[in-house]
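Assemble and predict.
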Amino acid sequence: MTTALRRLAGMAVTLVVASFIIFAAMYAAPGDPVTFLIGNPENLTPERIAAVRAEYHLDEPLFVQYWLWLSGAVTGDLGTSFQYHQPVAAIMSSRLPATLSLVAYAAVLFTVAGVGLGIWAAVRRGRVADSAVVGATTLAASVPSFVVGIVLVSFFSVQLGWFPVTGAGEGFADRMHHLTLPAIALSVGALAIVSRVTRQTMVEQFDSEHVEAARSTGLAERLVVLRHVLRNAWGPIITMIALVIASMLAGTVVVESVFGISGIGSLLVDAINTHDFPIVQAVLLYMVVAYMIVTTLVDLLLPLLDPRIGSRVKTS
Amino acid sequence: MTTTTADALLTRTGLTGRRRDPLFWISTGFLAVVVLVAAFAPLIAPYDPEAIDFAAIWAPPSLAHPFGTDQLGRDLLSRLLLGTRESLIGPFLLLVGATVLGVAIGIVAAWNGGWIDVLLARITDVMFAFPGLLFVVLVIAVFGEGPATAVVALALAYAPVIAKFTRSIALSELARPYVDAYRVQGVGGGVIAARYVVPNMAPALLGYLVVLFGEGLMGLATLSYLGFGAQPPSSEWGLMVQEGQDGIVLGHFGPTLVPGLAISAVVVAVNIVGVRLSERMGARA
């Protein structure tokens, strides 16, 4: 339990440091936010500038501004968007569902396909299927995800008309329909990583003595794979899947832009282009938080799945 | 056992081994052609890549326009050929910058240890712990979009990765007797590192850097696609994909698919060459 507490404290420190770096970077960015805030140059009177500066606390020094922002952020108030003039938290929460369902969909796809391909390659190691899986997934990982997305849209949406071209859809079935191609585009790069880790850890298990022993008892090969090889290979596979999901939560920017999904990623692109710093700040912080939550969860859950990991930590 | 391994190594690196690896030579040949195209692009391109022709918007492939034209009637083939330059020079500059910085930091960390080594370990930890995109986006949000910012942002993101790799091979290289021999003769540390250690590490670094070039090309094209890198009227490939995307719903796939496939083909070829190079260098060492 103390390890969990220590992890929590570490996360809090990381968060404060990360948020300060992000905040300071936005503060140091060239260009006066007032000009973006007021927009229309005709309204740029000294009184108006002073009023806007006071409203957004732009006239305070960096540390005061950061403190105001941090004390607001703790209570869920992430500031007000320069562009939309709405609370950042409200904008973020309206954009989150699309991104989260996209990542969840992609996670299911690349886990099933990646682990499946990895198992297949490991069982057929050294044969044609093995090199075909390794070659094909590596090749697929060399294609940028926006190209994969555009090829998918051109063929399946425009040419065949099977899927919608843009949007995230409403309701479960419609959302699945809308997000199928984006989820595929998002998973292609991850396939190579997950299938390689699966294949590698399984091949190592195949050479070990306990597998030899199991096989010598006359156990069917299918059961050897399921009960002895795969069971001992789960640790690295699950860790890798979690790492991929964690970076995917921050990596939907490109796919959301290709498919016109209004999620967190496309919000970030818009916010950078319009110099909407409160939103950029909040999105970058969301990426840090999402990454930390997923990696911490795995670290805490893995010992439950494989007791040897927990005992190793204790003895060392 | 030892003789068979030795035989395998000899045939691998020998002339026979080269003949047996057609994929490597096809990829190398393809990349050579791409570099030649970049060098002589203005001479080969049939049209001015920025010449707008409203009479020929989204023209299908024809004899006059082998790949058709884009949304402004610009010749796609000419834009693709000219775009080779910016699409290759960007990743090249990024790799040179990241390599100089990364190799220098890596060697210093391996040589001195101490606080530089600790700092490098911390920075690489943070870089690996958080998605690389985060850092790049932060740099672009602060310094504004543009090809130079995109190159600098990615170079800064890659430098610690290269530094970590350099440090790992430099540690074993520095332990070799010739380093001490030079030091006893009174040769300065910087001279030993630059004249002897770096050239000795070069083969091990080469394959890794080639693979990173492919990654950099993909990264820069992605940033341009998002509007953060090359700006119009440039014909950088990532930007071409983005500009051509509007044509998809109207059934005009060429302007976006042609540059997209060009990026993919170059990255695939670069990866094949890089992986094979590291395998060969690894086998030799």
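Chain A touches chain B at residues 18, 22, 25-26, 28-31, 138-139, 142-147, 150-151, 153-154, 158, 165, 246-247, 250-251, 253-254, 257-258, 268-269, 272-273, 277, 280, 284, 287-288, 291, 295 (CB under 8 Å).
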